[in-house]
Amino acid sequence: MMKILLLPLIGSLVLSGAAIADDTGDVEAVLEAYSAALAAEDVAAAETRVLSEGTEFTIFEGSGRNIGWADYRDHHLAPEFAADGFDIAVYDWRDYAIHVDGDTATATFTIRMEYSVHGEDRERD
């Protein structure tokens, strides 16, 4: 089984399931699908791209951390997507640097976000 370890600017996570891949193109496709699910605020679709059981999925964002998919889903994604006045306009991953070694892949990338909070436009890159 291929595991994909992502080391993005704002997070670190391990993907599996559909993440079984033989080359960087397959890895990038999984990353794109996960990113698209988050851009669509579709937590169920994102979950199909991660190790949803246990604590292998880990996110470090700013000064916070979520250990395990359930922690990230329940304490970060779901509240953020349900928040009144929070709207994502652009959520894009790019500039992939992918390395595949046996059944493990690592990737770094840049995340671009354009969003509004209570009508105030913001962005991060």
Summarize the structure.
The protein is α+β, with helices and mostly antiparallel strands and 125 residues long.
Can you walk through the features of this model?
With 125 residues, this protein is of the alpha+beta class. It has one domain (3-124): Nuclear Transport Factor 2, Chain: A (Roll). The protein contains 3 helices and 7 strands. Strands 1, 2, 5, 6 and 7 form a 5-stranded mixed sheet that branches. The protein has a two-stranded antiparallel ribbon with strand order 3-4. Strand 6 and strand 7 (120-124) form a beta hairpin. It is globular. It starts with a strand and ends with a strand. Residues 1-21 have low confidence and may be disordered.
- Mean pLDDT across all amino acids: 80
Q: What's the architecture in CATH terms?
A: Roll
Q: Share of helix among residues?
A: 25-40%
Distance between the termini: 32 Å
Q: In sequence order, what are the helices and strands, one letter per element?
A: EEHHEEHEEE
Question: Which stretches of 5+ consecutive residues score pLDDT under 50?
Answer: 1-21
Radius of gyration: 14 Å
CATH topology (level 3) name: Nuclear Transport Factor 2, Chain: A
Helix and strand content put the structural class at alpha+beta
Task: Label this structure with key terms.
125 residues, 7 strands, alpha+beta, Nuclear Transport Factor 2, Chain: A, disordered N terminus, five-stranded mixed sheet, 3 helices, 28% helix
